[in-house]
């Protein structure tokens, strides 16, 4: 009895996210039942390091998980009638003309009922085909197919920014799975699991160390360790690549120079390269960030960037390796110079060198010319290198886009660049066709995405953020895929095929980037994060008055970068004529990039008919409202197929955080521009919060007033902190709102370096308690702040609390460490009010 009861329990087991989209969970609510499955698996390679062997294992595990059916795997044809065969290359055994269509890494998937044939052009192509078949089964797609699939481009890379000390630059999902304490970790289980995930989305190489490279990575002891990483990647067809420190010849080569034309330096790089290939025969290549943000490079010796890149290219060419050379080169600038413009730098540096880079060099270009902002125009360098290989650099790591603590599904943003037509020579020149080499007839090309996978079970620190990694791989293979189609596949694999689950997460995700753009920085004004500190919360004034060149040029009457040729920096002139004509003209520039290209009055009328300032106000309110809607949407999925308790609670926590932080963003930005422009909000919302009780206006005991900086990140510019960091503070007030049911929100600052505790009560009856520890215990992985500011500002909410007019509401804060139990305000939200 007991056994059969257990068997029929619903299959909603707690999941920690480690299997990501490769869960192979039993199908939920499948109408058609299991398909005719083959009787056994033949994987035509018995070598364990072969991706073909891996494919056999993966099929066995997948079928077992999805259908609870165990199939045997053999490595020769002799065994069975109904079989999958996995063949490395097409041969006399595999008769189909379709196989002639296969290109490098491509595969042929031929499903006819229980007879399934998977043929790869290469070993890893066969594995890709196996993953494709398993993905179909896991989504309940049992159709017959005869599918030839080839990659859009040969370079489908990931750049991890892992440091030798085990930290990850812009890492929000835990420590490095590769490095710790200066060496390569001994247990590479997670590295192998990562390769499995990447292989399933057809990523073929990983740069395992930060672009700001440390020379110790390529020292002899560590190279052996890199070799171990390559060993665990190999069965998945994933290759290792390394970022190089340009100054290594001096730093550990004992040379007095790193001049790329110095014979000793050339010898040094030749030797290093030979060492690497001795240990890793299938090493993919180098990534170089030179002369960028303080990194050493060829310009130090008056050598060109091409001369720099070509030294590595020559060294690695005999081994078949490639060099990815980053275009992210710019100088510090003076904002008082009206024509100074960081966005112009890449074209200025690289365009004159077009044609000078060797054939195994690829210039790796970010999607826009600044730095992974919430919206940027397509990078003009894509239209200026007609005789040079190029690749697109995306960022799955949400450095400026909520740091995986805000849901932001990125493909709709990427889409604005990929499908942008640069009109080179007045001909169709989509960015997606330039990076694949198609437009300018280049043989090498592709993409790299900066990814911050870490040791957290969820990989990125957030279950929902994984859709971005999944989508990146799918797109790198086929740039014509639609963001929402990819998303639906990912949801079905990650959660379930339940229609409500698929529709709801699709709706949330597709609305997430527009929402984030609305409440962070819109009209092409950039993200408005604090660029001098965490890159997380709002701090618009950090963009100006710095040499970094991410300026908004906001003053009391005007805002925006004039990037026109006629009266500005001339950046618009870096685009081909037809694109230039659009961006040069204020009338023709689309609203969503108007402040990127033009310096206008706050009262300038947009195409939408609104003024710039009113658009700011409306968009920030709209964006925060959308972020709030994610909470009930997610809550509506509780208990649905595939929504286990563990992932449900984790995502719910994050959506509540995003909702609260979107209010912090909204208020900070609208307050800032209201303050600087003095122009009121037509809808009367800005500075008007009828349901808030400012902490500073409450009766305080053991608390004192604190002026928050930047001012706009606290309601009424003021917070309260305990008078000492060892004694409790109390803030109380008598409620003057009408009696009724409210959601009680408490805005406080969750700083790094303390776990203050808070208790909220009504008439001395506890409503709730919490600890301000979300960054201290790593519950959220964003870059923490040790100040009261837009990064630490957050909200705790207690829902549906019955409140009577005249009740005494009290918050008791108990400080901890350097965190003086800081409070900003209390808000009593009637049903349906967002504030
Ligand atoms: C089997 O895989 C190994 C390792 O990848 C490879 O060296 C070998 O050529 C493969 N054998 C065949 C018959 O494809
Ligand atoms: C390079 O790595 C070594 C070993 O982990 C470390 O001691 C050193 O500080 C690092 N250098 C830089 C510039 O990060
Ligand atoms: C540099 O010099 C040190 C000390 O003489 C020596 O241990 C090291 O092997 C040399 N490094 C290289 C790359 O030759
Ligand atoms: C590079 O050129 C500049 C000016 O042409 C000169 O002042 C400088 O000394 C040169 N630097 C080197 C390292 O040759
Ligand atoms: C493309 O380049 C190849 C050499 O790489 C050349 O043979 C071919 O003619 C070129 N095609 C076009 C359309 O220019
Ligand atoms: C993963 O991160 C979550 C929050 O982001 C944290 O609560 C959890 O402790 C982390 N787990 C691991 C295994 O790192
Ligand atoms: C032209 O540029 C100057 C700065 O050189 C600026 O002050 C002025 O506002 C600009 N004029 C227009 C119409 O944008
Ligand atoms: C390309 O387009 C520009 C802008 O529309 C136009 O001025 C130019 O004459 C065109 N060039 C050719 C060769 O058609
Ligand atoms: C801003 O408005 C003023 C007054 O209407 C006008 O003189 C000025 O040219 C405008 N500036 C810009 C940059 O449009
Ligand atoms: C705003 O803060 C000031 C102190 O900075 C305080 O005097 C004033 O009462 C506050 N206003 C409200 C509405 O709480
Ligand atoms: C906050 O709590 C964490 C987890 O218990 C602990 O590691 C940390 O030391 C605490 N911080 C302070 C300042 O007490
Ligand atoms: C109290 O705060 C001060 C100033 O921020 C700090 O120096 C001190 O270490 C804190 N005390 C404790 C117990 O953390």
Describe the structure.
- The structure is a single chain.
- With about 850 residues, the protein is an alpha/beta fold.
- It has 4 domains: about 1-150, Chitobiase, domain 2 (2-Layer Sandwich), CATH 3.30.379.10; about 155-480, TIM Barrel (Alpha-Beta Barrel); about 495-560 and about 600-685, Alpha-glucuronidase, C-terminal domain (Alpha-d-glucuronidase, C-terminal Domain, Alpha-Beta Complex), CATH 3.90.1330.10; about 690-830, Jelly Rolls (Sandwich), CATH 2.60.120.260.
- It is about 30% helix and about 20% strand.
- It has 18 helices and 29 strands.
- The strands form 7 sheets. An 8-stranded parallel β-barrel has the order 7-10-11-12-13-14-15-16. Strands 2-1-3-5-4-6 form a 6-stranded mixed beta sheet, covered by helices on one side. A 5-stranded antiparallel beta sheet has the order 20-23-28-25-26, with no helix packed on it.
- α2 packs parallel to α3, α13 (about 485-495) packs across α14 (about 500-520) and α14 runs antiparallel to α17.
- The longest helix is centred in the C-terminal third of the chain and has 33 residues, at about 645-675.
- About 55% of the residues are buried.
- Mean pLDDT is about 95; it is low at about 1-10 and about 80-85.
- The structure holds 2-acetamido-2-deoxy-beta-D-glucopyranose (NAG) (12 copies).
- One 2-acetamido-2-deoxy-beta-D-glucopyranose (NAG) binds next to loops.
- This is Alpha-glucuronidase.
- GO terms for molecular function: alpha-glucuronidase activity.
- Its EC number is 3.2.1.139.
- It catalyses: an alpha-D-glucuronoside + H2O = D-glucuronate + an alcohol.
- It is found in: Secreted.
């Amino acid at each position: 009895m007991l056994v059969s009861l257990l068997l029929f329990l619903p299959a909603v087991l707690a999941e920690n996210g480690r299997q990501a989209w490769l869960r192979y969970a039993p199908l939920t609510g499948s109408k058609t039942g299991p398909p005719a499955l083959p009787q056994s698996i033949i994987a035509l390679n018995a070598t364990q390091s072969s991706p073909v062997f891996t494919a056999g294992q993966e099929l066995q595990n997948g079928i077992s998980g999805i259908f609870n059916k165990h199939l045997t795997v053999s490595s020769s044809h002799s065994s069975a009638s109904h079989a999958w065969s996995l063949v490395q290359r097409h041969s006399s055994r595999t008769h189909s003309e379709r196989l002639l269509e296969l290109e490098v890494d491509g595969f042929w998937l031929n499903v006819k009922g229980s007879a399934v044939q998977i043929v790869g052009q290469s070993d890893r192509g066969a594995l890709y085909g196996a993953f494709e078949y398993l993905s179909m089964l896991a989504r309940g797609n049992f159709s017959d197919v005869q599918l030839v699939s080839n990659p859009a481009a040969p370079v489908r890379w990931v750049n991890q920014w892992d440091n030798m000390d085990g930290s990850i630059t812009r890492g929000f999902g835990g420590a490095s799975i590769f490095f710790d304490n200066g060496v390569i970790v001994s247990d590479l289980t997670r590295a192998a699991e990562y390769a499995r995930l990447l292989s399933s989305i057809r990523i073929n190489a990983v740069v395992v160390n930060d672009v700001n490279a440390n020379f110790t990575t390529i020292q002899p002891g560590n190279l052996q360790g890199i070799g171990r990483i390559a060993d665990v990647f190999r069965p998945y067809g994933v290759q290792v690549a390394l970022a190089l420190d340009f100054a290594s010849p001096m730093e550990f080569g004992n040379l007095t120079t790193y001049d790329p034309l110095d014979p000793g330096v050339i010898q040094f790089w030749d030797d290093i390269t030979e060492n690497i290939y001795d240990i890793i025969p299938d090493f993919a290549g180098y990534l170089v960030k030179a002369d960028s943000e303080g990194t050493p490079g060829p310009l130090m010796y008056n050598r060109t960037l091409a001369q720099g890149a070509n030294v590595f290219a020559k060294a690695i060419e005999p081994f078949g390796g490639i060099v990815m050379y980053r275009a992210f080169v710019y100088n510090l600038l003076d904002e008082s110079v009206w024509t100074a413009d960081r966005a112009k730098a890449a074209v200025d540096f690289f365009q004159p060198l077009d044609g000078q880079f060797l054939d195994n060099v690829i210039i790796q270009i970010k999607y826009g010319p600044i730095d992974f902002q919430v919206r940027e125009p397509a990078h003009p360098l894509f239209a200026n290198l007609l005789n040079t290989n190029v690749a697109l650099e995306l960022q799955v790591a949400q450095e400026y886009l909520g740091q995986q603590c805000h849901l932001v599904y990125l493909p709709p943003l990427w889409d604005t660049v990929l499908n942008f037509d640069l009109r080179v020579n007045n001909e169709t020149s989509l960015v997606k066709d330039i990076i694949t080499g198609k437009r300018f007839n280049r043989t090498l090309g592709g993409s790299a995405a900066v990814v911050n996978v870490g040791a957290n079970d969820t990989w990125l620190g957030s279950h929902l953020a994984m859709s971005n990694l999944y989508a990146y791989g799918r797109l790198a293979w086929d740039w014509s895929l639609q963001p929402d189609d990819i998303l639906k596949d990912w949801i079905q694999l990650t959660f379930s095929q339940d229609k409500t689950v698929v529709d709801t997460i699709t709706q949330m995700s597709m609305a997430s980037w527009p929402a984030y753009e609305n409440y962070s920085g819109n009209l092409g004004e950039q993200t408005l994060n604090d660029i001098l500190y965490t890159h997380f919360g709002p701090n618009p004034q950090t963009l100006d008055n710095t040499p970094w060149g991410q300026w908004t040029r906001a003053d009391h009457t005007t805002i925006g970068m004039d990037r026109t040729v006629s009266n500005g920096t001339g950046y618009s002139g870096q685009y081909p004529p037809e694109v230039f004509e659009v961006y040069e003209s204020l009338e023709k520039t689309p609203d969503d990039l108007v402040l990127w290209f033009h310096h206008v009055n706050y009262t300038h009328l947009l195409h939408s008919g609104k003024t710039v300032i009113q658009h700011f106000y409306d968009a920030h309110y709209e964006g925060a409202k959308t972020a709030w809607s994610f909470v009930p949407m997610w809550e509506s999925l509780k208990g649905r197929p595939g929504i286990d308790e563990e992932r449900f609670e984790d995502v719910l926590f994050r959506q509540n955080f995003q909702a609260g932080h979107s209010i912090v963003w909204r208020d900070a930005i609208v307050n800032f521009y209201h303050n600087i422009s003095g122009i009121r909000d037509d809808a009367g919302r800005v500075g008007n919060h009828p349901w808030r009780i400012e902490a500073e206006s409450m009766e305080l005991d053991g608390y004192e007033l604190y002026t928050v900086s930047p001012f706009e990140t606290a309601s009424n510019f003021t917070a309260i902190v305990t008078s000492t960091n060892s004694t409790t503070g109390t803030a109380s007030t008598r409620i003057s709102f009408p009696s009724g049911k409210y959601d009680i929100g408490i805005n406080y600052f969750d700083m790094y370096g303390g776990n203050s505790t808070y208790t909220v009560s009504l008439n001395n009856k506890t409503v709730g308690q919490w600890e301000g520890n979300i960054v201290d215990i790593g519950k959220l992985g964003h870059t923490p702040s040790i100040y009261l500011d837009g990064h630490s500002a957050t909200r705790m909410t207690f829902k549906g609390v019955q409140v009577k007019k005249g009740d005494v509401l009290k918050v008791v804060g108990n400080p901890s460490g350097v965190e003086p139990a800081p409070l900003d305000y209390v808000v009593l939200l009637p049903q349906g009010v967002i504030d």
